[in-house]
Structures are given as C-alpha cells and as structure tokens.
Amino acid sequence: MRNIVAGNWKSNKLMGEALKWMEDMSSWMPNRGHVEVMVAPPAPYLSQMASKAPAGLSVIAQNVSPEGPGAHTGEHTAEMLKSCGVSGAIVGHSERRARFGDTDRLVAQKVRALVSEKLQAVFCCGETLEQREAGEAQTVVHAQLKAAILGLDASALPFVVVAYEPIWAIGTGKTASSEEAQAMHGSIRGWLAETFGADKASEVAILYGGSCKPANAHELFSQPDINGGLIGGASLEPLDFQGVVEGHPDSEKG
Ligand code: 13P
C-alpha cells in the first residue's frame, strides 16, 4: 500500500521562494516515515526543483502534453519531464477542466502519455456542489474514472494515483467530512477492484484533496481508503505542509 502526500502549488511562488521551500523541506525530510512526499511547482521551476529535491521527495508537474514531440507550441511532453528528473504530473484537475478545456478525452490522453513513460499520473476527479446535492456525486466520479482509466493495462496501475477532490471543498475552507470522503474513496476502490481485480486495486493510492490542513489531516488519512492527500493552500508553507504529512498515521509522528 502506498501512502502519498502531494502539494499542488498552482500558480503561486516565485523562483527564490520555491528554492527556499525546498531547502526548508530538505532538513525535515528524514521525519516523513512511510509517506511518499511530492510537490507540483509551476513548470518553469521543475528542473531546478528536481535537481535539489532530497530523497523521498519527488517533483511532479501540474500539467503534461497529450501529444508527443512536434509542432505543439507551449506544450511539454512526458518525455521532456522525465529528462528533467520530474516524476509525473497532475492531470484532470477541476481548475483545468473548468477553465482550460481539459476534457475527459484530453485527460485520458494525458494519463496515457505519462504512464507510457513510466511516470506517475496523479489523476483528479470530483463533483460540484450541485451534483452532490442532486445525489449524483458517485455517478460523476465513476464516469470520470471510466473516461480516463478504463482500458489501461493493469501493468500501468503502479503509475496511477487517484485524487478525489470534491470541487466544493477546493480552496473554500469547507472539507468533506471523513465519512463523506471515505464513502467516495471506498466506491473508487470498488470501481478499481471491479475493473482490475482487488489485488491491483488495493495498491493504488487514493488521495483526498480539498481544504486539507494540519488540523484535519489525521482524521481524513486514518480512513481505510484514504491513503494521503493532494494539498493546495497548505502546501505553500513548509511548516503547514509538514504538519499535513505528520498527520498521516504512517508518518513518523502519525
Ligand atoms: P486546497 O487545499 O487549497 O483546497 O486545494 C486543493 C487542490 O485543489 C489541490 O489540487
């Protein structure tokens, strides 16, 4: 079973601040216990951040091209990320789905681009408040999973991480309760088990994202199907991020 806490900086921090963050994390990293730590800084800092990352902390991108090399202005391919020491990328984040045209089809292509390079695809799914209130949350999330993950060979699963991020909880200070989150994570695990078999499904890390912080991390990460988190705001300051990692029951302090 993998435990992962990943930070998503979105469009925050300048280069100097990014390097200071990495320096602060480096002296703390030996305390992480059995939790893989990842950070997704803005693209211009990836190479330098990756070259300074301590053992146990991997650097991932916030996006990847659905295409290979060629005439695709502004895109970075999975192979390019790999050549910079980057370990994977976030795909299907609701902010990209809502504002930058990342359709289910494009997300599926991006997942494939990553796993074919043996890079981690941190695949995000989640429902809006309206969909939850209409009782459609599980249907929406299963449809997103089906669109992006169905059809992958089971051998690709070690390169897939699922992040359940209810859209109404992102950046709002409103967290899903541990019961709500566990119910969805259990159903995601169930879908993976039906699709790839229970053994394979049990090895996929399913992360929770949405207003996760040091104060609620332990309660969330203690649920049977919540293997860690994808953290926005609370990943920006090293002390907050460390507090979230330390909330994991499999961390040194958990
Ligand atoms: P917040 O932790 O700021 O709610 O963001 C969550 C998120 O979108 C991580 O990808």
Produce the secondary structure layout.
Layout: E1 4-8, H1 15-28, E2 36-40, H2 46-52, E3 57-59, H3 78-83, E4 88-91, H4 94-99, H5 104-115, E5 120-125, H6 129-133, H7 137-149, E6 160-164, H8 178-196, H9 198-202, E7 206-208, H10 214-221, E8 228-231, H11 238-246
Helix pairs in contact: 5-7, 7-8, 10-11
Bound molecules: 1,3-dihydroxyacetonephosphate (13P).
The site of 1,3-dihydroxyacetonephosphate (13P) has 14 residues, from β8.
**Could you give me the name of the CATH homologous superfamily?**
Aldolase class I
Ligand inventory reads:
1,3-dihydroxyacetonephosphate
Content of β-strand: 5-15%
> What count of structural domains?
1
State the assembly state of the protein chains: single chain
Helical/strand content category: alpha/beta
CATH architecture group name: Alpha-Beta Barrel
Poorly predicted runs of 5 or more residues? none
Number of helices: 11
Number of strands: 8
Q: How is the CATH topology named?
A: TIM Barrel
General shape: globular
Question: What is the top-level CATH class?
Answer: Alpha Beta
